[in-house]
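#random but structural
TW: two for the price of one
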Amino acid sequence: MRFVQIAIAATLVAAISAPALAEDAMMAGGTMSTMKPGEVVTVMGDGHTGTMMADDKMMAGMMKMAKPIDCIMIMTGKDGKTYMVTPTSKAEMAECQKMAM
C-alpha cells in the first residue's frame, strides 16, 4: 500500500514538472518558434532576453529604426558578454541558416 502511494506521488510530480522540463530542453538547443507579427525580442549584453507584443503605434516607431536581416547569430562568450555575428560570406550565411533550421 505504501508503495502505491509513493508511485502515485512520483507520477504527479513527473506530470507537473514535465512542461517546465520541456521548456528547458527547448532553450538548450531545441527548436525555436517563428516570431509573430508585432512580436519584439530583446537581448541584453549579459545574455538575458525578453519578448513582448507591440501595438501598431509602438511598432511603427520602432520600424523607423529597424533594418531587415537575412540571418544573425547571437552567442554568449566565456566572459559573460553577448556577441552578435552578421554573416558576410556565402559560407557563413549557409552555416547561419543551417543553425536556424
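TW: number two ↓
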Amino acid sequence: MLAQEAPPADEAQPPPPEEQAPAGPALQPADLTPLICDPAVAGFRYLEVRGTGFDAWATQRLIGNVVDASGVPQIHWGSVWVTPQGRLTLEVNLCADPVQHRPALPAGDYSVSVGDTGGATIAETGISLAAPADTSGDSDIGSLVLFDNQTSDADRVYFSLN
C-alpha cells in the first residue's frame, strides 16, 4: 500500500484516543457535582465512586481517602477490597455520619484517592459538592395554570412549583 492510499474500510481501526479506555487504574464518581446534605441532620446519602484497572492489586486491600481542596483529610477507609477483576467501589457518605462522628461535607472541591498501604496514591479523581439552588424567592416562574378555560383570574386554579 502506498502512503497516500487509505486503508480498506473493512480493516479494524483503533478508536480515537478520547474513546479509548484509560490506561491503568482509574476512579470514576457516579456524579461529578452532587448536592450537599443538610449539615444539621445526620444521615446516610452516598456518592458511589467506582475503580477499574486495579488488576495489579486484585484480591488485595488498599486504602482510600477523601481530602478537601486544602488537603485536609475528611474521610479515610483503612481497607478497600479489590475484586479479582481489578475493580473496587467506594461509598462516600455526604451527610453528617453518626457512626464515624463526622460532620456533613460542606460545598466545595474534594479529591478521592486510593493508594497502597504504604500511602502511595494509585488513582485519584475529583468531586465538587454543590449547595442546593435557592428556592426561597417569591417568584411566579414555577406557577402552572391547571384550568385555563375559565373566564376570569378568580376562576383559575394555580399550582406553584416553588
